[in-house]
Each structure stands twice: as C-alpha cells, then as structure tokens.
UniProtKB/TrEMBL annotation:
SUPFAM superfamilies named in the record: FMN-binding split barrel
Name used for this protein in its record: Pyridoxamine 5'-phosphate oxidase family protein
Keyword Chloroplast: no
Record's keyword terms, sorted: Coiled coil
Chain ranges of the Pyridoxamine 5'-phosphate oxidase N-terminal domain: 45-142
InterPro entries: Pyridox_Oxase_N (IPR011576), Split_barrel_FMN-bd (IPR012349)
Membrane-spanning residues: none
One Pfam family linked to the record: PNPOx_N
Keyword Zinc-finger tagged: no
Entry coiled-coil feature ranges: 176-203
Length: 208
C-alpha cells in the first residue's frame, strides 16, 4: 500500500493529518519504495473479477472531478497482469466525459465495492483508450464476460497504487443474485410448507 499512500498523502493532506492527530498513525503507510508501483496479487485479481461494477474517477482540464459508474457481468473487468486492468467500454449516452478527461489527463481513480461483505479496493492508475481490434483475444474470446452493447473502445489502466479500505462506513447492500442465494433455503421451506398446508386442507375437506 506504500505507493498508494505516497500518491494520496499530498502536503495538504499531511497538514490536515497533523492538525487532526492522525499523522503518526498514517506514517506507517508511507513505508516502502514510493517509486515502485503497487502490484495486483491473487486476492486483488479475484476481488476485481468478481465485481459487477465499479466507480471510475477522472479530472477535466479545468480541474473538475467526474465520477462514472461502469457495470457489467462479473468478470467484465479483466486483470491482464500484475499491473494492468482492462475492460471493453460500450456506447452509452455519448457524452464522452470520461474519454475526454482521459485524453487530457490520464490519471484515474477506481473504486471496486463489495457492499455485501463491506469491502472496498481503491486503485490509482493511468488510463489509455485503445482500439478493441488491438486485443481481439480479449474482446472476442469465447465466454469472455463483457457489458452488452456496441463496443466503442478498450479502456486499459496501468496500476500505480492500490489500497484495501476500512469497512467502518460501508453500508451493507445486496444484489438480486446475492439475495436469491441467501434466501434459497427460505424459498425451499415455503414450498414445503405450502405443500403440507394443501395436504392438511385436503384431509380436512377444506375448500380454497
């Protein structure tokens, strides 16, 4: 996490940490080689490829930040190697704010969220927009997960820093599939109870 902290803890950030009494605690995060980019390990790759969406932050040439949500089936973000992420970007509302921002400033911030387990992975990187034809194995490979729609380009992110974040203020939320899995035994029990109820009504001669 040392590279992420070195990028995030600017002089102004450190001043606030000093003012609020957290500077000493944060110093430990600055240990290590600040010049060496953080690398994605097996845990990060598994976490990223299990997500069905993430938040992507860019900055315009006028200095305004912009946040966009990118979604798709789990696995639509591909971990190509220890320092590279990529996903097929499909046509949306055609405002192209993210793409325009990246053209002027390639620095990006990505938040990968697992609300159900209150886990967050933050990534700093440098992004570039590539022609999908340059990566036919990634775009067209049979069984490749990607968002449905017209593929406009491939967004490739070179990771600079990463950090797992504290779950303290993450509100648990559950997707439809997560709820379905969690409630499967409840549904099965309801089916059994309804069947037993019908059998009892039949024995008692009750009418619907």
């Amino acid at each position: 996490m040392s590279r992420y902290a070195h990028l995030a803890f600017t002089e102004n950030v450190r001043r606030v940490q000093e003012e609020r009494g957290s500077a000493t605690a944060m110093t430990r995060l600055l240990a290590g080689d600040a010049g060496r980019a953080d690398r994605l390990g097996a845990d990060e790759a598994e976490f990223i490829e299990a997500r069905d969406g993430f938040y992507l932050g860019t900055v315009s040439e006028t200095g305004w930040p912009y946040i966009q949500f990118r979604g798709g089936p789990p696995g639509f973000v591909h971990v190509l190697d220890a320092q590279t992420l990529a996903f097929v970007d499909v046509r949306g509302n055609r405002q192209y704010i993210t793409a325009g921002n990246i053209r002027g400033n390639d620095r990006v911030s990505l938040f990968f969220m697992d609300y159900a387990h209150r886990t967050r992975l933050k990534v700093f990187g440098r992004a570039e927009i590539r022609d999908p034809a340059e990566f036919p194995d990634l775009v067209g490979r049979s069984g490749d997960a990607r968002t449905d729609g017209h593929a406009e380009w491939l967004l490739v992110v070179r990771v600079e820093g990463l950090a797992w974040n504290c779950p303290q203020h993450i509100t648990p939320r559950f997707s439809e599939s997560e709820l379905s899995d969690a409630l499967e035994h409840v549904y099965e029990r309801l089916v059994r109870l309804e069947k037993e109820n019908l059998e009892l009504r039949s024995r008692l001669g009750a009418k619907d």
